[in-house]
Amino acid sequence: MESLPCKGCRGLCCGPVPVTEQELKSIKKKIKSMPHKIRLELENQDRYPGTCIFYDLVKDRCGIHSVRPSICRAFGLYKNLICFRKPDAARAGNWNVEEITAGLLSVDYTWKDFK
Ligand code: SF4
Ligand code: SF4
């Protein structure tokens, strides 16, 4: 897979994203399995308005990387999800949601929904 130059972006492209029921379940499981201190630190970071609630500003990466929604996995690699820092990485056609979306992460689902 083409790698993207994400280091230093500090969550620039990580805003509200569509999430499915199955993805929500996986995220809940991941959050519950985190040590309490790590979870609290991630939850209480001082993010920019609009940044995804799970972006880890301290580590400059997704705080739930292994269970991130499918759109996050696809970002930068499709024509309708272009990364402006590396537009050439978008080689495939358009990305489409394959399952029914349960809502938007960071808008419809916030930290209180994952405890
Ligand atoms: S996908 Fe692109 S915009 Fe998003 S963090 Fe990576 S390099 Fe930055
Ligand atoms: S779940 Fe992770 S990759 Fe997706 S928008 Fe949030 S911080 Fe970014």
Descriptive account of the structure:
This protein is 23% helix and 11% strand. The chain is α+β, with helices and mostly antiparallel strands and 115 residues long. A two-stranded antiparallel ribbon has the order 1-4. A two-stranded antiparallel sheet has the order 2-3. The longest helix has 13 residues, at 21-33.
Gist of the model:
The chain has 115 residues and is an alpha+beta fold.
Overall structural domain count: 1
List ligands, each type once. iron/sulfur cluster
Class from helix and strand fractions:
alpha+beta
The biggest beta sheet reads:
2 strands, antiparallel
Mean pLDDT: 94
Give the strand order of the largest sheet, numbering strands 1, 2, ... along the chain.
Answer: 1-4
Task: Show unreliable segments.
Answer: none
Number of strands: 4
Please give the count of helices. Answer: 3
Helix amount:
10-25%
| Rg, Å, rounded | 14 Å
Furnish the topology, listing elements before pairings:
Elements: E1 17-20, H1 21-33, H2 36-43, E2 55-56, E3 61-62, H3 70-74, E4 101-105
Antiparallel strand pairs: 1-4, 2-3
The chain binds iron/sulfur cluster (2 copies).
Keywords:
two-stranded antiparallel sheet; two-stranded antiparallel ribbon; binds iron/sulfur cluster; alpha+beta; 115 residues; 23% helix
